[in-house]
Amino acid sequence: LYELGLAPALQWLAVHFRSQEKLRVQLTCNVIEDSINMELRVLVFKLVRELLRNVVKHAGVESATVRVQGDRTRVTVEVEDAGRGFEWQIEMFGSRPGGFGLWSISDRVGGVGGELTVDTAPGRGAHFKLVFPL
Q1: Residue 43 phi/psi, 5° resolution?
Q2: How far apart are the C-alpha atoms of 104 and 109, rounded to whole Å?
Q3: Where does the chain have alpha helices with state H?
Q4: Closest listed residue to residue 79, CA positions, set 107, 110, 102
Q5: Cα-based angle 76, 40, 64 (whole degrees, multiple of 5)
Q6: How far is CA 27 from CA 105, 111, 121, in A?
Q7: For residues 63 and 105, what is the distance between their CA atoms, to the nearest angstrom?
Q8: Is the pLDDT reported for residue 24 higher than 50?
Q9: pTM of the predicted protein model
Q10: Rounded to 5 degrees, what angle do the CA atoms 123, 61, 84 make?
Q11: How confident is the model at residue 87 (pLDDT cuts 50, 70, 90)?
Q12: Which among 134, 83, 130, 92 is positioned nearest to 109, based on CA atoms?
């Protein structure tokens, strides 16, 4: 992440999840690396990692999709699965022991001026979209 950039770090993360968690991650990453400061690169990496952990723990699927796209004005991150889904308004404010929680993800995205959108319902999978201004 620090030496090679966001795209190679996310590629490593995809390989890690496949080998350690048996989760196949289809990754697309098309960003202008020099337009993203290191703080945001680290945040994006951590948030993608946490969302993929949630897929492993809760979705009940063997694959997920991660798309990261950016230009000089914004970075968009999408993490999607075709799993169990959930009632996200309720889950967002609930806390799980030892969990990072969707509230924390939302708070960290908002803390840098970004937006989080969640599209999910029981039995319908989950689609998380994070948009960060640059």
Answers
A1: -60, -45
A2: 9
A3: 6-21, 38-54, 88-93, 102-111
A4: 102
A5: 45
A6: 20, 26, 23
A7: 21
A8: yes
A9: 0.91
A10: 15
A11: confident
A12: 130
What tokens were used for 77?
A: 């991150």
Q: How much of the chain exceeds pLDDT 90, in percent?
A: 84
Does pLDDT of 90 surpass 70?
no
Short-list 40, 56, 53, CA closest to 108: 40
* Total residue count of the chain as it appears in this document: 134
What tokens were used for 79? 């993490």
Q: Return all residues near 72 (Cβ < 8 A) that are at least 6 apart.
A: 32, 35, 134
Strand partners, 118: 128
Task: Say if residues 13 and 52 touch (Cβ distance below 8 Å).
Answer: yes
Categorize the per-residue pLDDT at 98 as very low, low, confident or very high, splitting at 50, 70 and 90.
very low
* Cα dihedral sign, 8-13-14-19: positive
Pairwise CA distance, residues 25 & 58, whole Å: 16
The candidate with the shortest Cα–Cα distance to 117, out of 99, 93, 92, 96, is 92
